């Protein structure tokens, strides 16, 4: 078994606002998986709902650092999970296990271990797909609210092809600046307002230092999941899954320049749902990075419904 570098885990516990705990849990098939917890501020209102954060396809828990700190300061307990083969979690010897049905079981095991009796879910891209499936497993009394970060029941296939063309490439570079330059080349049209500091910050979320330079924090074998895309195959109909969420509030974060989530899909999501709203994040594409205070405030205000 090949493993990604693991940070020394510490058990989840309550603590001051500055606290962030790294933890691990076991998958049903024996992998050691990793996550991060930002405990609720000591003395905060216990009624504030915990927030479970699920990242994108090749992303990791570092994507949620800024929004987690903000929500933590507002009294929320925030938890983020690394899927198998990403971040600090073990890599799987069989790339076919980098699949939603396998990851679902890993997520369920984490929820059980963490004792999350009631929570809101913030899902970026793939994390939002998990949220759609989880609606049938977790009723509104358990998963009380959902935030979709630039994903919905209809996915634009041109975005999937764009992601497939880059996934697993440029895995090792000499410097963090090289990582930033690669991101700028591939995502520049999605994030036209980003400056040098922004690209470096994003690079630091996606890659970490190795002995020979910097490496992307996911198993390159993940690319096999998208390598056999069949353009002739019909896209799966995910709208029935979305309908399982009609009994709980939904917030849709939509990148202005996103090529994965269209304005038409956002409109249909709000038309179908009695308590769904959209925030379009200017100057960003797929997927919004969740750094800005305006988005933080939108999320915090939305969570008051849960």
Give a description of the structure.
The chain has 306 residues and is α/β, with parallel strands linked by helices. The protein has a single domain (21-168, 218-303), classed as Alpha/Beta hydrolase fold, catalytic domain (Rossmann fold), CATH 3.40.50.1820. The chain has ten helices and eleven strands. The strands form two sheets. An eight-stranded mixed beta sheet has the order 1-2-4-3-5-6-10-11, with helices on both faces. A three-stranded antiparallel beta sheet has the order 7-9-8. Strand 10, helix 9 (263-272) and strand 11 (276-281) form a beta-alpha-beta unit. Helix 5 packs across helix 6. The longest helix has 15 residues, at 100-114. It is globular. 44% of the residues are buried. Residues 1-17 have low confidence and may be disordered.
Concise account of the structure shown:
Helix content is 32%, strand content 18%. It is α/β, with parallel strands linked by helices and 306 residues long.
Q: From the structure provided, what is the oligomeric state, counting identical versus distinct chains? A: single chain
Sequence of secondary-structure elements? EEEHEHEHEHEHHEEHHEHEH
Note the total helix count: 10
Report strand %.
15-25%
What structural class do helix, strand and pairing data support? alpha/beta
In the CATH scheme, the class would be Alpha Beta
CATH superfamily, by name, is: Alpha/Beta hydrolase fold, catalytic domain
pLDDT average, as an integer? 92
Q: How many domains in all? A: 1
> What is the end-to-end distance?
41 Å
Q: Could you give a short account of the major beta sheet?
A: 8 strands, mixed
Adjacency order of strands in the biggest sheet: 1-2-4-3-5-6-10-11
Could you tell me the radius of gyration in angstroms?
A: 18 Å
Helix content: 25-40%
State the low-pLDDT regions, or none.
1-17
User: What's the total number of strands?
Assistant: 11
Question: How does CATH name the architecture?
Answer: 3-Layer(aba) Sandwich
Shape: globular
């Amino acid at each position: 078994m090949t493993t990604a570098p693991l940070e020394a885990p510490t058990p989840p516990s309550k603590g001051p606002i500055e606290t962030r705990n790294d933890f691990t849990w076991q998958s049903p098939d024996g992998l050691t998986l990793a996550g991060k917890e930002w405990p609720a501020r000591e003395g905060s209102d216990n009624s504030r709902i915990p927030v479970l954060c699920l990242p994108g396809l090749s992303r990791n828990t570092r994507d949620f650092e800024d929004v987690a700190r903000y929500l933590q300061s507002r009294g929320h307990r925030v938890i983020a999970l690394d899927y198998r083969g990403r971040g600090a979690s073990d890599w799987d010897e069989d790339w076919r296990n980098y699949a939603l049905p396998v990851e679902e079981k890993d997520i369920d095991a984490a929820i059980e271990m963490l004792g999350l009796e009631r929570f809101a879910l913030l899902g970026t891209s793939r994390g939002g797909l998990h949220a759609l499936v989880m609606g049938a497993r977790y009723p509104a009394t358990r998963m009380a609210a959902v935030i979709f970060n630039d994903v919905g029941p209809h996915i634009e296939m041109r975005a999937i092809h764009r992601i497939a063309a880059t996934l697993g490439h440029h895995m090792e570079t000499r410097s963090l600046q090289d990582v930033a330059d690669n991101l700028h080349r591939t995502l520049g049209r999605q994030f036209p307002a980003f400056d040098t500091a922004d690209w470096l910050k994003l690079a630091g979320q996606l890659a970490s230092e190795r002995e020979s330079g910097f490496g992307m924090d996911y198993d390159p074998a993940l690319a096999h999941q998208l390598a056999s895309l069949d353009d002739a195959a019909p896209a799966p109909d995910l709208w029935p899954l979305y309908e399982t969420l009609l009994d709980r509030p939904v917030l849709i974060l939509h990148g202005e320049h996103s090529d994965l989530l269209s304005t038409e899909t956002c409109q249909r999501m709000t038309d179908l749902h009695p308590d769904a709203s959209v925030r379009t994040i200017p100057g960003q594409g797929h997927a919004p990075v969740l750094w800005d205070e305006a988005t933080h405030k939108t999320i915090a205000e939305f969570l008051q419904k849960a």
